[in-house]
Design a protein that fits this description.
single chain, 241 residues, Tetrahydropterin Synthase, Chain A, 2 domains, four-stranded antiparallel sheet, 5 helices
């Protein structure tokens, strides 16, 4: 094993060379070159979780870019947080400061939108029948991650599914719930708005209190113009009675 005065990617950092099989695996959200060394992960706002057992004994040379946060977790517990920069992670190599081989790495981008489609039944107020009339509404809302740690603790936890999928599953009910509350608590003096008017009147800020609980913020809301009529029996009104 030999040591150099500076790493090729960062002359200020000490580095070491040796058998290629023992070198840390280069890993980042961007391609690391055409030499076959390292892996690139890219695409979604939340990437992972990735099991790190493959790096046991070698470790990872992790490059975190601007706007990225990397969480190292095990069984839902956050072991380490890595911000912009280059980090050498020792994985299960017998040293006291090494990370466990059964840890999981999740990469979160704060500038990539998570698109969350929604579709749900919305009861129309005023129906006293045991089977109240409902309308099915659909659409999409877009969110950004503003607090990765809070998102990990409330949504991602120790889920084995991709993080963006967990967000979509956990929050798909949000707009139908807000629309139901708007219809149920409508101001009688203001008239009886149609469901599509309620949906059209929703703004990203209307989702803010709920999304803040998960470390997210809404940047756009797209109700489907035809979604409010989907699934309603023929001849049944979609406006409030």
């Amino acid at each position: 094993m030999t040591f150099g005065d500076g790493h090729p990617l960062d002359p200020r950092a000490a580095w070491e060379t040796g058998d290629a099989r023992a070198r840390p695996i280069a890993w980042s959200a961007r391609p690391v070159g055409d030499d076959g060394e390292g892996d690139a992960i890219g695409g979604d706002a939340i990437e992972g979780p990735f099991d790190l057992g493959f790096a046991a004994g070698r470790g990872l040379e992790l490059t975190v870019g601007r706007g990225e946060t990397v969480l190292m977790c095990r069984r839902g517990e956050v072991l380490a947080v890595y911000l912009e920069g280059r980090h050498l992670l020792r994985i299960a190599d017998g040293r006291t400061d090494a990370l466990p081989g059964n840890g999981r790495l999740t990469l979160i981008h704060d500038d990539r939108v998570i698109r969350i489609p929604w579709r749900g039944a919305i009861p129309l107020p005023g129906r006293r029948d045991p089977s109240p009339l409902v309308a099915l509404a659909a659409g999409r809302f877009d969110v950004l991650v503003v607090d990765p740690l809070l998102l990990q603790r409330t949504v991602l936890r120790d889920g084995g599914e991709p993080g963006a999928d967990l967000c979509r599953a956990a929050l798909a009910h949000l707009v139908p719930t807000v629309a139901t509350l708007r219809l149920a608590n409508r101001d009688e003096a203001a008239g009886r708005p149609e469901l599509r008017d309620v949906l059209a009147g929703l703004q990203p800020r209307d989702l803010a209190p709920e999304l803040a609980r998960f470390g997210l913020t809404c940047v756009a809301l797209h109700p489907s113009p035809d979604g409010a009529r989907a699934g309603v029996p023929a001849g049944a009104p979609v406006s409030c009675p």
